[in-house]
Specification:
2 domains, Rossmann fold, about 20% strand, DNA-binding, 4-stranded antiparallel β-sheet, alpha/beta, about 325 residues, Glutathione S-transferase Yfyf (Class Pi), Chain A, domain 2, 10 helices
C-alpha cells in the first residue's frame, strides 16, 4: 500500500497511528501528549485487523491529561504496550538512523527489541536486568552515604550477574541469527559486506567484586550489558564514524529486512520516507524485497517514487485519506 501526498499532508501521522494501535506506542516520541492534536481533549486509534478467518480490534485511547489505555476486542489490557504480544509491526522512519549513527544505548535498545520478537519467552530479560541494576545502584549509593552495610549489595550483585549473563546470551543469539540475512541485504542494496559484532562479555561475580570499591565511590555499576554495544560495519569499516548518511540508511534497511526474514510470520511493515534518498536501482531492490511481505505501507510524495505497482494507493490531503 502506498500513501501519497505533499509534505505535511499527514502521511506520517497515518503510519504513526498504525504503529500506535498495534504496538501501543509511537515510533516518533514517548511523550504521549505530543500525539494529541492541539485544541482537543484527547485522541483514539482503532483498527480492524483481519488474519484469515480471525478479526481483531485493537484500540488505543490517549486522554489529554491522563495516561493512555488500550483494549483488544473490547477487553482492557494492563498496558498499551501489551498489544505487542498480539501484533508484530516493524517500522522505518528517518529517526531510526540512530540505530547506526547514534550512541550505544540506541543499539542496545534495538537489539533488545529484536530479542523480544525472536525469542518471546525472553522478552522481559532487559527489563528484569534493568530493575536489578537499579536496585544494585541504589544499594551502592546507600553504602556510599554510610546508610547501609556492604552486605546489602551482594543479593543484587547476584541478580545482576545471573540476569546479565542471560541477557548477553540472548543478544548474542539474536546477532548470530541476523548476521547472514543482514550481509545478504547489504550486498543486494549495494552497501558491501555487512557485518555485525556484539561487543561485550557476560559478567561474573569476580568481575563485580573487583570493581566493588570503585562502584561504591561512583554510586553506579560500571560493568555489564547496560554498557555493551553492537558494531555495525561494512567489512572492517565501522558505519557509525565512517559511513555516509546514505550508507547508514541502507544499513538500517538491511537490518529491518534481516529481522523480517527471521520472524515466523510476516509483520506489518511501515516504511516512512524510505525512498527519497535511494537511487532508482536501490528503490527497485527494496521494492522487490518487500513485495514478499503480506502487508507493507510506504509513504512517498509522488506515485513515481515506487518502481513497482502497489496493490493500493491512498492519497493523503490535509489529513484526509482516500
Amino acid at each position: 500500500m502506498l500513501f501519497v501526498g505533499d509534505n505535511g499532508a499527514g502521511k506520517t501521522n497515518l503510519l504513526e497511528s498504525l504503529h500506535l494501535a498495534t504496538q501501543g506506542f509511537s515510533p516518533r516520541t514517548r511523550h504521549d501528549q505530543q500525539l494529541v492534536a492541539f485544541g482537543t481533549e484527547g485522541g483514539a486509534v482503532e483498527l480492524t485487523v483481519r488474519d484469515g478467518e480471525f478479526v481483531r480490534r485493537p484500540r488505543v485511547v490517549i486522554p489529554a491529561r491522563d495516561a493512555k489505555r488500550a483494549t483488544l476486542d473490547g477487553v482492557a489490557l494492563p498496558s498499551a504496550e501489551s498489544l505487542r504480544r498480539s501484533f508484530t509491526t516493524l517500522v522505518f522512519t528517518p529517526d531510526r538512523l540512530a540505530v547506526v549513527k547514534g550512541g550505544p544505548a540506541a543499539r542496545r535498545a534495538y537489539l533488545d527489541r529484536v530479542v523480544s520478537r525472536l525469542f518471546p519467552a525472553r522478552s522481559q530479560l532487559a527489563q528484569e536486568y534493568g530493575a536489578a541494576l537499579a536496585q544494585r545502584n541504589a544499594a551502592l549509593r546507600r553504602v556510599q552515604l554510610g546508610l547501609s552495610s556492604r552486605d546489602a549489595i551482594e543479593p543484587w550483585s547476584e541478580q545482576v550477574v545471573t540476569l546479565g549473563a542471560a541477557l548477553v546470551e540472548a543478544r548474542r543469539e539474536a546477532v548470530a541469527a541476523l548476521v547472514d540475512p543482514f550481509s545478504d541485504n547489504t550486498g543486494a542494496l549495494g552497501l558491501g559486506e555487512g557485518t555485525l559484532v556484539y561487543e561485550g562479555e557476560a559478567l561474573t561475580s569476580g568481575d563485580l567484586a573487583a570493581k566493588l570499591e570503585s562502584d561504591i565511590a561512583r554510586g553506579i555499576t560500571t560493568l555489564g550489558p547496560h554498557l555493551h554495544d553492537l558494531a555495525i560495519a561494512d567489512g572492517a569499516r565501522a558505519l557509525r564514524p565512517f559511513g555516509s548518511q546514505g550508507e547508514q540508511r541502507l544499513a538500517v534497511l538491511a537490518l529491518l529486512l534481516a529481522e523480517i526474514a527471521l520472524l515466523p510470520s510476516s509483520p506489518l511493515l511501515l516504511l516512512d520516507d524510505v525512498l527519497s534518498e535511494l537511487d532508482s536501482r536501490r528503490r527497485r531492490v527494496l521494492a522487490e524485497r518487500v513485495s514478499t511481505i503480506e502487508q507493507t505501507v510506504i509513504t512517498a510524495t509522488h506515485r513515481s517514487a515506487l518502481p513497482v505497482e502497489p496493490a493500493h494507493v491512498v492519497e493523503v490531503t490535509h489529513g484526509q485519506a482516500r
